[in-house]
């Protein structure tokens, strides 16, 4: 009884599936728009001051103060498309709707369908026999094609306007950044290069300033190059996986009708993309002058996937302990492990073999023997403020989409707008690249040549904002109580944050690497 009351107070929902279709409860909104919810509430609650909460507003009989009303009856309507007139046998289900009702049944053989509602006083805490009933009605409708059976659910969801607002908001950020980058590239850099290349006399040469001064140190290998190369390899793997998965989802291969298709596709792609990860990691590590290639390969194959798997395994243990149906069976975990060690790790070794066989990437300028001293930096050109600022703009592009994605994960809402998501993904790539290039240029002008790690961390700091937003979402939108649920939420959030950290950091790094190579390749250096 206590559990039921808590469920009604927190507006817990039943989620039913028939023939892979959610059984929906369709009702009219205040604006006359019909909304089809893929779940329906356990019941509802009228507060002590007589205010009807959640679903209690649908019936004027739900009016007693401090009373719970249990939805213990459903009228189900199943709509089907018959194949009789189209020369195929049987029929296909094209819609399943229900209307929840509350009836006070007296006994199993004395049902009260259409009578007074099932009331449970707020102060009542004893045991009670509850009788649940249902009725089913089948309706033939050959106008609805089986392929478009999801349309009535998706059309009722009122998110499209917000999506366009989100895209426009992101595009404004991109245009602003592109303008800044274009101005730097075309005007400032062009002038700089022209001036640097015109200087011939030694008196003028001594007056050099800005980014040309650090040409002898710009490609000095970074500290902890091993870790950076491992992150870049993993980030490349995640980037290719995300791109292909979203592209396939856009083309309609991974529709919400096929439950679990998106995750399956992502995991399989990740396993098969071990080769690019090994190659990029090995090539960058060799470029940094590293020699411990065995450690590099093992870390690329095991470090980040190992962290994610351990986190996932702990979450699964909690689900097993709670006897949740969301727990992944032991056999599936073994299958994932065997795919990881049997396919992904060997592919990473193959990629690394080819990466180490290649020559290191050649840089346009030589590195001096003695490192140059970096002048005193102002507050804004110090590493931390730049990194913190760098993550704001990419996050600004994605936070509206993030709300819908978190809703689909935690509030059991449909996520089907992969076209919008793919657009935002492309915008995110551009924004990460441009923000990192901008800040990299400003730091080089301040004669600070430690750009390797900074370029990675500038765009990957977006993941920190993602985590802060997830905490805000947890506090403001979700009414999660209980230690296990809280650990699960933050456990899964940490997996998302780590994947996003590697992905955005890699984009920023390679954009900056390209930029630095380009500007120093056009300099005439003695």
UniProtKB/TrEMBL annotation:
It comes from the Eukaryota. GO terms for cellular component: membrane. SUPFAM superfamilies: MFS general substrate transporter (SSF103473). Keywords: Membrane, Signal, Transmembrane, Transmembrane helix. InterPro entries: EMP70 (IPR004240), MFS_trans_sf (IPR036259). GO terms for biological process: protein localization to membrane. The chain crosses the membrane at residues 164-186, 227-254, 260-285, 297-320, 326-356, 387-410, 416-444, 456-475, 487-516. It is found in: Membrane. It is a multi-pass membrane protein. Belongs to the nonaspanin (TM9SF) (TC 9.A.2) family. This is Transmembrane 9 superfamily member. It comes from Microcaecilia unicolor. The gene is LOC115473998.
């Amino acid at each position: 009884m206590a559990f039921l009351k808590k469920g009604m107070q927190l507006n817990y929902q039943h989620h039913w599936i028939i023939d892979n279709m959610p059984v929906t409860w369709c009702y009219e909104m205040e604006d006359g728009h019909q909304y089809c919810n893929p779940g329906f509430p356990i019941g509802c609650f009228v507060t002590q001051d007589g205010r009807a909460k959640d679903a209690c507003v649908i019936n004027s009989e739900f009016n007693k103060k401090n009373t719970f009303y249990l939805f213990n009856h459903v009228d189900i309507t199943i709509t089907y498309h018959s194949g009789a007139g189209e020369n195929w046998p049987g029929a296909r289900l094209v819609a399943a709707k229900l209307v929840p009702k509350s009836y006070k049944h007296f006994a199993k053989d004395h049902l009260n369908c259409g009578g007074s509602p099932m009331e449970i006083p707020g102060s009542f805490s004893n045991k009670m026999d509850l009788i649940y009933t249902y009725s089913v009605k089948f309706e033939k409708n050959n106008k609805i094609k089986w392929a478009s059976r999801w349309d009535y659910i998706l059309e009722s969801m009122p998110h499209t306007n917000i999506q366009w607002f989100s895209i426009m908001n992101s595009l404004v950020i991109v245009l602003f950044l592109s303008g800044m980058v274009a101005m730097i590239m075309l005007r400032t850099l062009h002038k700089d290069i022209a001036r640097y290349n015109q200087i011939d006399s030694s008196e003028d040469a001594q007056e050099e300033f800005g980014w040309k001064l650090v040409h002898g140190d710009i490609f000095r290998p970074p500290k902890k190059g091993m870790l950076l190369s491992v992150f870049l390899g993993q980030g490349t793997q995640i980037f290719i996986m995300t791109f292909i998965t979203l592209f396939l989802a856009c083309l309609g291969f991974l529709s919400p009708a096929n439950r679990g298709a998106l995750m399956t596709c992502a995991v399989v792609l990740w396993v098969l993309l071990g080769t690019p990860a090994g190659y990029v990691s090995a090539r960058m590590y060799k470029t940094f002058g590293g020699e411990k290639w065995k450690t590099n390969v093992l870390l690329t194959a095991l470090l980040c996937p190992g962290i994610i798997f351990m986190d996932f395994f702990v979450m699964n243990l909690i689900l097993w302990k709670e006897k949740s149906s969301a727990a992944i069976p032991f056999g599936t975990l073994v299958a994932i492990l065997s795919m990881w060690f049997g396919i992904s790790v060997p592919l990473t070794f193959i990629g690394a073999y080819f990466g180490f066989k290649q020559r290191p990437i050649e840089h346009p300028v030589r590195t001096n023997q003695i490192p140059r001293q970096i002048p005193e930096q102002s507050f804004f050109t110090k590493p931390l403020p730049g990194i913190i600022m760098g993550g704001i703009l990419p996050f600004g592009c994605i936070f509206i989409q993030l709300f819908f994605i978190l809703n689909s994960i935690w509030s059991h809402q449909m996520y089907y707008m992969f076209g919008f998501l793919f657009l935002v993904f492309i915008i995110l790539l551009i924004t990460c690249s441009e923000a990192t290039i901008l800040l990299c240029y400003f730091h080089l002008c301040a004669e600070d040549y430690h750009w390797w790690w900074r370029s990675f961390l500038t765009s990957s700091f977006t993941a920190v904002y993602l985590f802060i937003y997830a905490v805000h979402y947890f506090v403001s939108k979700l009414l999660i109580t209980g230690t296990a649920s809280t650990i699960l939420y933050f456990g899964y959030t940490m997996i998302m944050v780590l994947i996003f950290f590697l992905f955005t950091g890699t984009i920023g790094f390679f954009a900056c690497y390209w930029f630095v190579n380009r500007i120093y390749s056009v300099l005439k250096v003695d």
